[in-house]
Design brief:
The chain has 173 residues and is mostly helical. It has one domain: Multiheme cytochrome fold. It has nine helices and no strands. The chain has helices spanning 3-26, 30-36, 41-48, 57-60, 65-85, 98-104, 121-126, 131-135, 152-156. The longest helix has 24 residues, at 3-26. The relative contact order is 0.10. The mean pLDDT is 86. Residues 51-52, 54-55, 59-60, 96, 100-101, 103-105, 131, 135, 138, 149 line the site of one heme C.
Length: 173
């Protein structure tokens, strides 16, 4: 191989790496996640209005760690292909990675009550109810109709919420 060909190959590699890193960074932005693909628009709009508007899409929708990085990139590529071929379900399917919730809310096991309601997080965690068991719809709503907060329906599958003798199980009055 001549020196010249070697240099050309080196330059091509550097350009590809720079492009790759740049594109990969771009595809992590909220704009790219939510605005480029029109089928995502509803998720961007609801997110913007939600309690997590300051939290990037990727903070909830990516896997942690070294292998998580590659898993996230692979899923991202798969989604781009689905977008380009139009081969996707509406509403878009996908779930947050619940380990990510705990990275920010590392004290969640200590939450026993909030300003408005008693709910022992450690106790329910020990019953294997995950965050979405109660916080479903938290960011986008169930199908993108906007933020949903826990309500009586959230609890009534397991608790009696109609018996006036036991309202104070959950309420402070
Ligand atoms: C990058 C950090 C981050 C991640 C990831 C994150 N949150 Fe939050 N969360 C916040 C911040 C900041 C607030 C607003 C300030 C506060 O109340 O602490 C908040 C508020 C909340 C609230 C109270 C407001 C509300 O909407 O009811 C709940 C519940 C909550 N988060 C649950 C979750 C769950 C469940 C997940 C995972 C799907 C999650 N969070 C992921 C940072 C984060
Ligand atoms: C058994 C139901 C249930 C489960 C399971 C649950 N939560 Fe909650 N959580 C609630 C309720 C109810 C509230 C109060 C909502 C309100 O005040 O409107 C709450 C409030 C919170 C808050 C806000 C605390 C505050 O002081 O305002 C955070 C943060 C939170 N949850 C995080 C989580 C995370 C993270 C998970 C999963 C690891 C989780 N929760 C699982 C029911 C649950
Ligand atoms: C704080 C965490 C959090 C952030 C930030 C977040 N999401 Fe989500 N996302 C969720 C949760 C939780 C669900 C599951 C739906 C639900 O709430 O039941 C979800 C579901 C989705 C889905 C699948 C829809 C479904 O119902 O299965 C898409 C698509 C999506 N989000 C896109 C986005 C985009 C785009 C952004 C940024 C503009 C974003 N999300 C930011 C938590 C988050
Ligand atoms: C999947 C079932 C399930 C769901 C959903 C659920 N809980 Fe529970 N909860 C339990 C079980 C089981 C216990 C422990 C047994 C008991 O005391 O009833 C419990 C206990 C509690 C306690 C303590 C009761 C006591 O006697 O001190 C509170 C408060 C509570 N839950 C609040 C809530 C709230 C608020 C919601 C909805 C946001 C909720 N739970 C949703 C199953 C559930
Ligand atoms: C298992 C827990 C649980 C029990 C038992 C329960 N509630 Fe609630 N209640 C909730 C949750 C969760 C919310 C929604 C979160 C909030 O408003 O803080 C709520 C909200 C409410 C609200 C406010 C509604 C709103 O939309 O603002 C009223 C009023 C209320 N409950 C009345 C009652 C009465 C009356 C009883 C007894 C007959 C009762 N609740 C029993 C969990 C419970």
């Amino acid at each position: 191989m001549t020196k010249r060909t070697r240099n050309i190959i080196l330059i091509v590699i550097v350009v590809l790496v720079v492009l790759g890193v740049g594109m990969s960074k771009f595809f992590e932005t909220n704009y790219s996640c939510g605005k480029i693909c029109h089928e995502m628009g509803i998720y961007y709009d609801t997110w913007e209005e939600s309690s997590h508007a300051e939290v990037a899409c990727h903070s909830c929708h990516s896997w942690p760690g070294f292998t998580g990085f590659f898993k996230t990139k692979l899923v991202g590529m798969e989604e781009s292909i689905k977008h380009m071929t139009g081969n996707y379900a509406v509403p878009i399917q996908g779930e947050p990675v619940l380990e990510r919730c705990i990275e920010c809310h590392s004290n969640y096991l200590e939450i026993k009550e909030t300003e408005s309601i008693k709910v022992d997080h450690a106790l329910h965690d020990s019953l294997s109810i995950d965050c979405m068991g109660c916080h479903a719809g938290m960011v986008h709503g169930h199908s993108g109709e906007g933020e949903v907060k826990p309500s009586h329906d959230t609890c009534s599958s397991c608790h009696d919420t109609d018996d006036f003798e036991t309202c104070d199980t959950c309420h402070n009055w």
